[in-house]
Amino acid sequence: MAQDSGDFASDYQFWLQKLSVWEQASAREVQQDTCLYLSQFQEFLRQMYEVLKEMDSNTVMERFPTIGQLLAKICCNPLILAYDESQKILIWCLCCLINKVPQNSGESEPNFWIWGLLSHMLSAFRYDVKEVGLFTEILGYEPVDYYPSLLKNMVLSLVSELRESHLNGFNTQSRMTPKRMMSLSRVCVPLVTLPDFEPLVEALLTYHGHEPQEVLWPEFFEAVNEAFLLKKIVLPASSVVSLWLRHLPSLERATLHLFEKLLSRERWCLCLRRIECCIKDSLLPQAACHPAIFRIVDEMFRFALLETDGAPQVLAVLQVFTRCFVEALEKENKQPKFTFKTYFPYASPSLTAVLSQHPEAIPHGHRLQPLLYTSQLLREAVEEETPESHRSSFESWFLFVHFGGWVDMVMKQLLRSEPEPPTALLWLLAFYYSPRDESQQRAQTVVELRAVFNRLMILLRSDPLSAMDLQAEAGESPSTDPTAPVCGQLVRRLFLNFLLWAPEGHKIAEEAVTRMARTDAITHEIIGFLNQTLYRWDHLCVEAPRSEKLARALLKELQAQV
Known about the structure:
The chain has helices spanning 5-24, 27-52, 57-63, 67-75, 78-81, 84-96, 105-123, 130-139, 143-167, 178-188, 198-206, 218-229, 237-246, 248-262, 265-268, 272-281, 284-287, 291-307, 312-332, 340-343, 349-355, 368-383, 389-402, 405-415, 423-433, 439-460, 467-475, 485-501, 503-516, 520-540, 545-559. 72% of the residues lie in helices and 0% in strands. It contains 31 helices and no strands. α2 packs across α6 and α24 packs across α25 (423-433). The chain folds into 3 domains: 1-99 and 108-141; 251-343; 349-559, no CATH class. It is elongated.
C-alpha cells in the first residue's frame, strides 16, 4: 500500500473539506486554488486507488462511509477532470465500489448510482462547461475543440494500453490485470452507444488474454450486442465475431432477433432479395464462417424447423441464409480453413460433398446423373435399418433442405422426363416434403406421384389445355389420406413449375392459380413459391423473360389479395 491507513485517513478528510470549499468558491478562485494543489491531489488519487483496490465494496463503505460523497464531488469538478490521468484513476476508484455479486436490490442500488456518475462524468466534456471554458481560454484553446479531444484522448490512451497488454502476452508484469479489465468493461456498460467510445468497445471485444476464464463483465457483452442489434453502434465484423464467440447468449439473441424480423407474415410477403439483404446486414452469415458460430445458428434453425413442423417460411429463410453463408465462406476462404464436413459433422461426408456443389453450375444436359447419385446417397443413409437410422434420416433431410436449388432441379428434370419419370427423382421429392414417413409410406407416395405425373403429361398433350382439369388434378390429393397437406403441397409445386415452364401452361396460368389459391394458407404457400422462384432466377441469371414476367404478374396479383 502506498502509505499506512492512518496517513490516508488524514489526507482523505483534508481533501473532502477542500472539495467542499471549492464547491462554494467562485470559478476563478477554484481555478487558482486547484492549480496550486493539483499535483498533490493527483498523488492523493493514486494513493486512494491503491487503498481501495485491496478491499471489497462492502469493506470500503464500512471504512469510508463518505467515499461516495468524496467521489461525487470530484466527478463534478471539471478542472480536476480536465487532466485525463485524473479521469482514468477516478474510473478505477469508482469501479472498486461496484458490488461484484449483489445479493439484493439494496446492494444493487449503489451500482446504478456509480454507472450514472461515470456516464455523467465522461459525457460532460461534450458540452460547454463554464469552469472548463475559463480554464481553456487561459490556455488558448476553444472549448468546442477541447472538450471532445479530452474524451477522445482518454479512450485512445486506454485502447493503446489494451493493445500493449495484448502484445505483452505472458509477461504478467506488463499486462493489464483481469481485475482492471473487468472494471473497465463495467464502466463501458452505460457508454457503449457513445461514438467516442467505439474504439474502446472494439479493443475490449478483440482483446484476447491468456486467462482461463472470461475477464469481461457479461453485462458489457449484453449491452454491446443490444446496441448492435438496434443499430445504435456500428462494429466491424471481426469485433462482432469476437463478441458472439465469447458470449453465447449474445449469439443466441442475435439469431432470435433475426428470426423475429424475418418470420413475421408481413416480412414474409416481401421478396427474398430483401430478406437476403436483412440476413447479410445481421452479419450472421459472415460470422458463421467460424464453425462454432455456424453450429449454434444452425442448431437454432433445427429447433425452428422442429417447432414449426418444417414450415415453408422457415425452410426458405434457412435456404437464403445458407446461400449467404456459402457466399461469405467462398469470399473469405480463398485458401479454405475448414472443410464443409466441419460445418455438418452429423451428415454423410459423401452427401455433404455432393450437396455443397452449386447445382446451377452443372450444364443442363448433365444434371440427371448428380441427382440420381444424390438420391442414392440419401436413400442409403435414410433406409438403413439401424438403431441410429431415425437420427440419420433427420440429419440427412436437414442437410438436404439447406440447399433448395437441388429440389428445383428435380422439378425441372421431371418436366423433361418422358415417357417415365425416374423413381429416384420422385423419391427425392417425397423425402423432401415428408421426411418422417417410413420407407413403406414413402414408396406408396412415389407410386401416387408417378400417377399424378402421368396424368399431368396426358393433360399437357390435350388440346385445348383446361385450367379446370388442372385444378381437378391439383385439388385431388394423391395420398390415401385426402387431408394430407404435405402431398398436396408437393403436387401444387409440381403443377406451378409446369405452369411457369411449359408454353402451354402460360395460357392458363392466371386462371389455374386463381382456382388453386382457394384458401389463405394455400395463397401464402404459392406466394412463397413464386418469391423463391424469382429469387433463384435472379441469382442464376436465368434468361426466361416470358416465365419471369408471368411469375411477377402472378405474385403481384396474389399479394394484393392478402
